[in-house]
Design goal:
Elements (H helix, E strand, L loop, with lengths): L11 H13 L12 E8 L7 E5 L7 E2 L8 E5 L5 E5 L5 E5 L6 E2 L8 E5 L5 E7 L3 E7 L6 E2 L7 E6 L5 E6 L12 E6 L6 E2 L13 E6 L5 E6 L7 E6 L7 E2 L8 E7 L5 E7 L6 E6 L6 E2 L7 E8 L6 E5 L4 E2 L4 E7 L5 E6 L5 E3 L3 E3 L5 E10 L10 E7 L5 E6 L5 E2 L5 E7 L10 E5 L2 E2 L6 E3 L4 E5 L6 E10 L5 E10 L1
Parallel strand pairs: 26-32, 34-41
Antiparallel strand pairs: 1-2, 1-24, 2-3, 4-5, 5-6, 6-7, 8-9, 9-10, 10-11, 12-13, 13-14, 14-15, 16-17, 17-18, 18-19, 20-21, 21-22, 22-23, 25-27, 27-30, 28-29, 28-31, 31-32, 33-35, 35-39, 36-37, 36-40, 38-39, 40-41
Length: 497
């Protein structure tokens, strides 16, 4: 197929002209990929006159701006797995970014305006529109290689939308010359290699007038195509038809002639369609409805123009993190955990010590915990009902038991004649493997340096071979602090004669 390298000779004026022509053409088609309903990407001029790309949750909340250059970003299209967005940049080249707006990279640079990206279902290629005098449909690998042209005629071919099985591409063409004899744009389908181009909305009216057909969008099961049409000569409305042959056309909006309904895009679960409606006649908003046209409602009303919606297929679960909690060992019988999900708007379910997971919020607080080991687990579920399959976990031990001191030597209250006695005791803790630093020895109120006594972890025995002592009563004190902060203390006396 002919490559577009020769287009590098086009002048900057021609590039601008192409961009202007495309801006007044119909809105790009979108593809639906089977899965759970994620966010809806759209274009708005609410912050920048030339427009930027935003996302919104299906309930109309959480509007987030994704692009931040000088305006002019448009035509967002989610990848099949929902992790990427292809779009037209202000430089009229195609770009790809992460679904959160990070990691943007240029995909094409053809010296003419490129727009209307549409992903193949396997995520390996992107169909798009470029021009060498008229608009044609091209495909390119997602790494920018392997660019080739699918349509090649004197008519404008635009708005590609890949079928869910990857075998066909729907598009819009304005083929007015014989044998087409149509004055308006129609929805066509072709094989993914560009062959077998068939008109699904041919002109069957007399006199010759049908109204433009635009914005084809495949249902996730591949059976229906939604599109906009102004059959009555008034404002466009949303229709659906059988994808196989264009039969079974149904007007699903059927609204007032003064309302413009365009840009349909199916939800990944196939139950809903998002679209653009201009009810006031002064601005456009994103609306949603059931696939049969019922329950039409504005998604996010705004004084600006919101257009070109595309619905994210979200089957990617969030990642759950415990950002704070108790130390590994503590004497506190309560515990508080701060929770975080990689997806805002997620809900949490928590489990303590193997109990069933139950709804919880951050921070999650437990009280009245028993001594011993405990395990806390939490998993997040995002707005698309994807649940983290690997819950975050935190293990810790509650210890309110003081260390014990027994087996004191010389025995408490005893009288000995040895002026260099071995002073010692058995020092144990119920949990902590005590180190010498945990054990302190005092003789007659004076702390004995740790270098001068031995604490044997294997036998839990403390030994101090004292230097020569004077006769009289001697007071010994052992103080132990375990890892939970519990303090065990024992004092006794013996007498040397």
């Amino acid at each position: 197929m002919m490559k577009i390298d020769r287009l590098k000779s086009f002048s900057a004026l021609a590039i601008v002209a192409v961009a202007l022509c495309m801006s007044v053409a119909a809105n790009p088609a979108e593809a639906a990929f089977t899965g759970r309903n994620g966010k809806i990407a759209f274009v708005s001029n609410r912050d920048v006159g030339a427009g930027e790309i935003y996302t919104v949750k299906p309930d109309g909340t959480g509007v987030t701006r994704l692009t931040f250059p000088n305006g002019g970003n448009s035509d967002p299209a989610f990848s099949p797995d929902g992790t990427k967005v292809a779009f037209k940049g202000p430089d009229n080249d195609l770009h790809v970014m992460n679904a959160d707006g990070t990691g943007s990279r240029r995909l094409t640079s053809m010296a003419v305006a490129e727009s209307e990206p549409a992903w193949s279902p396997d995520g390996s290629r992107i169909a798009f529109v470029a021009s060498d005098g008229d608009f044609e449909i091209w495909v390119v690998n997602t790494d920018g290689t392997g660019r080739e042209r699918l349509t090649d005629n004197s008519f404008h071919d635009t708005q590609p939308a890949w079928s869910p099985d990857g075998d066909r591409i729907a598009f819009v063409s304005a083929r007015s010359a014989p044998p087409f004899n149509d004055t308006d744009r129609n929805v066509y389908v072709m094989n993914a290699d560009g062959t077998g181009q068939t008109n699904l909305t041919p002109n069957t009216t007399s006199p010759v007038y049908q109204g433009h057909d635009d914005g084809p969008s495949w249902s996730p099961d591949g059976d229906r195509i939604a599109y906009s049409n102004s059959l009555t000569g008034g404002e466009p409305e949303i229709w659906t038809m059988n994808a196989a042959d264009g039969s079974g056309k149904v007007n699903v909006t059927d609204t007032s002639a003064s309302v413009s309904d365009t840009d349909p895009t199916w939800s990944p679960d196939g139950a809903k369609i998002a679209y653009v409606a201009s009810v006031s006649g002064t601005n456009r908003d994103i609306w949603t409805m059931n696939a049969d046209g019922s329950d039409q409602r504005v998604l996010h009303a705004h004084a600006a123009n919101d257009t070109k919606p595309d619905w994210q297929q979200d089957s990617i679960p969030p990642n759950t993190t415990i950002t704070s909690g108790p130390p590994n060992i503590t004497s506190a019988t309560s515990a508080s955990f701060s929770l975080l999900s990689t997806e805002t708007g997620s809900t949490f379910r928590c489990s303590l010590d193997g109990a069933p997971f139950a709804p919880c919020t951050s921070p999650k607080v437990y009280s009245g915990l028993a001594n011993g080991s405990h395990t806390f687990r939490v998993r997040a579920t995002d707005a698309a009902d994807n649940t983290d399959a690997t819950p975050a976990a935190r293990r810790w031990t509650v210890d309110t038991v003081r260390p014990t001191i027994s087996g004191m030597r010389p025995a408490p209250g005893s009288t000995i004649r040895n002026l260099t006695p071995t002073i010692g005791a058995t020092v144990k803790d119920n949990v902590t493997d005590l180190a010498k630093a945990n054990v302190k020895l005092y003789l007659n109120g004076k702390q004995i340096p740790a270098t001068r006594y031995t604490y044997d972890r294997g036998t839990d025995r403390l030994f101090y071979n004292s230097p020569k002592l004077s006769k009289g009563k001697k007071r010994v004190e052992v103080m132990v602090r375990d890892g939970a902060g519990n303090v065990g203390q024992r004092a006794w006396s013996f007498t040397i004669r």
